[in-house]
Design a protein that fits this description.
Chain A is built from ten helices and nine strands. Chain A is an alpha+beta fold. In chain A, a hairpin with a 2-residue loop joins strand 3 and strand 4. The two termini of chain A are 28 Å apart. Chain B folds into three domains: 83 residues, Butyryl-Coa Dehydrogenase, subunit A, domain 1, CATH 1.10.540; 117 residues, Butyryl-CoA Dehydrogenase, subunit A, domain 2, CATH 2.40.110.10; 143 residues, Butyryl-CoA Dehydrogenase, subunit A, domain 3. Helices cover 44% and strands 13% of the residues of chain B. In chain B, the strands form two sheets. Chain B has a four-stranded mixed β-sheet. A four-stranded antiparallel β-sheet of chain B has the order 2-3-7-6, with no helix packed on it. In chain B, a hairpin with a 2-residue loop joins strand 2 and strand 3. In chain B, helix 1 packs parallel to helix 3, helix 7 runs parallel beside helix 9 and helix 9 crosses helix 10. Classes of the chains: A alpha+beta (321), B alpha+beta (396). The interface between A and B is large, with 61 and 55 residues.
Chain lengths: 321, 396
């Protein structure tokens, strides 16, 4: 057993962080909320191998494991990189153009009645998953009305009156894998969100002075920050364990490991986002400070690939089997 | 990253399981009277002797000092398997095995090591810890128990508290003030105190659980030979802290495994507890809290493996131990709250659950109160995490 990142994994994380710092700095990211997804930058992610990371080399992919994908998605979360990152990655190798980033793919779980579809105005294809399989629909076929004020300014949503059946692109087993891997990668994004929010709060607590000293010297603030990093480290262990387990290098069932990760990710990311706002005081409630962007992304991601309550129910059922 | 165990680790686990399967059927049940400390000592030291004879004593101690010299991962496997098999706990041997012994290994001279290490491993010497004082809890370095230099001896006077199992201990790891004029961290000395010296008075302290292992200790001009000093005079704070370097992330492994068993049992209890309509299990809020706590315990088990892996690579864990303790004590606190909700009126007595469970959920609920206090309160842990891990400024 060795549950530390390998040197290659650490280098991968550093590489993605460097890419994000250079190409997805916060001003660029914020601008996408106004002007939409930047196709050039989306293809840069593709060219770095973000989407094709787990596609076998024989099929033109990078041929790495899901643990490596977790390491990459953690960094994407840290930089609040917008766009349907998870769907595009899941679709690579299944839908032409997904791996290369020339086709932007979104995802939604099927449900009846009107739905809010994420990223509809940014994507080319929507993949709908249900118990029977995976189904694709051209984004143009969906007459969606973009919401004027999405919860997360960097995650546009459109109201669609009802989801069509779509063209079958995978069976029930594919859909189950889609959901498992989708929940895994989403939990890695949430880990990154929690880390980003914690870093932002801690650096503010060191700089901001009141009563003649940095506010981070006060235990009320210091302890809140300690709780943030505690959530992060517990979550990190769960998310890494889930990645390793999905790759077959674990000791538990992958479904269980992923439910653990996704459930804790939902709570930790939102809690760290809220704490980040609180540490910033009045500034935390302003559009200018990034705290709300972390929190809002955390809220959005909770509802992707099973929310916290859903995974909690699955884990509870496992306790009495 | 690989969570699978190596062939060698698997072999270690198989051997240990086979041994536990052989010996545990012949180990008597834990003495039922928790206040009979002599019986507890006899029971715990008998188990220690069994471990010693089988080569499992001092699993994490270096081989040159009589230990097994196992890797941190083997240590993890040892604690996991003994807990799963329901083997006795380290009990009265806790301080000797996990604190005083490792400190002696790191800091004592050859004579002191020869006199003390083997008897700890064989279960012959029981140690207690003379650190905290009524006026020095979280601020341990402010301790005021005085040691006066008197030729061959130190003459020690003062009061220690939370000296668990002092009533049945042979030795005490004692920290005393040898220089009252130096800054508080620089006037402390670490001593080996035999518990049969004149001038030591022990008074038991009853715990909120009603158990009797707590004690306070009054020292009235106790003459401790200078030969019993470990490390240099006034260097005792460093000697005390050095033990933390032995922390391999393994401290709570038994607790995690037993917590998982407790939670699984609580889920079964929930299915049996009837309410006005249905059972406690039919309550969605209770089910989801069970699921969430299960997730958190699982994540803490993973965090343990990360800390152990880090120890295996670097030899230390660092502030990751404080993060773990904070999270673990919080999970257990919420487990206790959930047990209270699930058991409802069936939880109105310790050791009586109206046949709903064989586990003592009510006693555990009370015991849980110690987790946010003992070995550094959660408030102190948050200071450590905030200052050492996050680099936030001190408020002093």
């Amino acid at each position: 057993m060795d549950f530390e990142l390998s040197e290659d994994q650490e280098a991968l994380a550093e590489g993605v962080a460097a890419l994000c710092e250079g190409r997805f700095d916060i001003d660029t990211v914020r601008a996408m909320g106004e002007t939409g997804l930047d196709p050039g930058r989306w293809r840069e992610l593709a060219n770095t191998g973000v989407f094709s990371l787990c596609v076998p080399e024989s099929e033109g992919g990078v041929g790495l494991g899901w643990a490596e994908a977790v390491v990459v998605f953690e960094q994407l979360g840290r930089f609040i990189v917008p766009g349907p990152l998870v769907a595009n990655t899941l679709a690579a190798g299944r839908l032409d153009g997904a791996a290369s980033g020339t086709v932007v793919v979104g995802a939604i779980e099927r449900r009846d009645g009107p739905v809010l579809v994420e990223h509809l105005s940014w994507i080319d294809v929507l993949v709908i998953s249900d118990a029977d399989g995976l189904w694709s629909v051209g984004a143009g076929e969906l007459r969606g009305a973009p919401a004027a004020q999405p919860l997360d300014p960097l995650t546009p949503v459109s109201r669609v009156e009802s989801l069509p059946q779509g063209a079958r692109i995978g069976g029930a087993a594919d859909a189950a894998r889609w959901r498992l891997r989708g929940a895994l990668l989403t939990s890695a994004l949430q880990l990154g969100i929690a880390i980003g929010a914690t870093d932002l709060a801690v650096s503010y607590a060191k700089e901001r002075e009141q009563f003649g000293r940095p506010i981070g010297a006060f235990q009320a603030v210091k302890h809140r920050c300690a709780d943030m990093i505690t959530r992060v480290e517990v979550l990190r262990a769960a998310v890494y364990a889930a990645g390793v387990t999905v790759d077959g290098f674990g000791v538990d069932a992958p479904e269980r490991a992923v439910s653990v990760a996704k459930l804790l990710a939902s709570h930790a990311a939102a809690a760290c986002g809220k704490d980040c706002v609180q540490v910033h005081g009045g500034m935390g409630y302003t559009w200018e400070i990034d705290a709300h962007l972390y929190l809002k992304r955390a809220w959005v991601l909770d509802h992707a690939f099973g929310d916290g309550d859903e995974h909690a129910e699955e884990l509870a059922a496992g306790l009495v089997q | 990253m690989d969570l699978r165990y190596t062939e060698q680790e698997g072999h270690f686990r198989d051997e240990l399981r086979a041994w536990l399967g052989d010996v545990l059927p012949n180990v008597p049940p834990v003495p039922s009277d928790h206040t009979d400390l002599k019986a507890r000592r006899a029971y715990d030291t008998d188990w220690q002797r069994l471990l010693y004879e089988a080569g499992y004593a001092g699993i994490h101690w270096p081989a040159e000092f009589g230990g097994r010299g196992s890797t941190p991962t083997e240590h993890l496997i040892f604690l996991e398997e003994t807990e799963r098999a329901g083997a006795p706990y380290v009990g009265v041997n806790f301080v000797g095995q996990l604190h005083a012994g490792p400190t002696l290994i790191a800091e004592a001279n050859d004579e002191q090591r020869a006199a003390h290490l083997a008897p700890i491993l064989r279960g012959e010497h029981v140690w207690c810890q003379g650190f905290s004082e009524p006026g020095s809890g979280s601020d341990l370095a402010s301790l005021s128990t005085r040691a006066i230099d008197d030729g061959e001896d130190y003459v020690v006077t003062g009061q220690k508290i939370w000296t668990s199992f002092a009533q049945v201990a042979d030795y005490c790891e004692l920290i005393v003030r040898t220089d009252p004029d130096a800054p508080k961290h620089r006037g402390i000395t670490w001593l080996i105190m035999p518990m049969d010296l004149p001038g030591i008075e022990i008074r038991p302290i009853d715990t909120a659980l009603g158990s009797g292992e707590f004690a306070e200790m009054f020292l009235d001009e106790v003459r401790i030979p200078k030969a019993n000093r470990v490390g240099a005079e006034n260097d005792g704070w460093r000697v005390t802290m050095v033990t933390f370097a032995f922390e391999r992330g393994t401290a709570f492994i038994s607790e995690i495994i037993s917590s998982q068993r407790l939670l699984a049992d609580l889920a079964q209890v929930a299915r049996k507890v009837t309410r006005r309509s249905g059972t406690a299990w039919d309550d969605m809020g209770i089910r989801r809290e069970l699921g969430r706590l299960d997730a958190e315990l699982d994540a803490l088990w993973s965090l343990t493996k990360r800390n152990v892996s880090q120890a295996q690579r670097t030899g230390m864990v660092g502030p990751g131990g404080s993060v773990f303790k904070l999270a673990y004590s919080d999970v257990r606190t919420r487990m206790a709250d959930l047990a209270e909700r699930v058991l409802s009126r069936a939880g109105l007595a310790i050791g009586e659950t109206l046949d709903l469970s064989e586990l003592d959920h009510v006693g555990q609920r009370i015991y849980t109160l110690t987790l946010t206090i003992a070995a550094g309160t959660s408030e102190i842990q948050r200071n450590i995490v905030g200052e050492r891990l996050l680099g936030l400024p001190k408020d002093r």
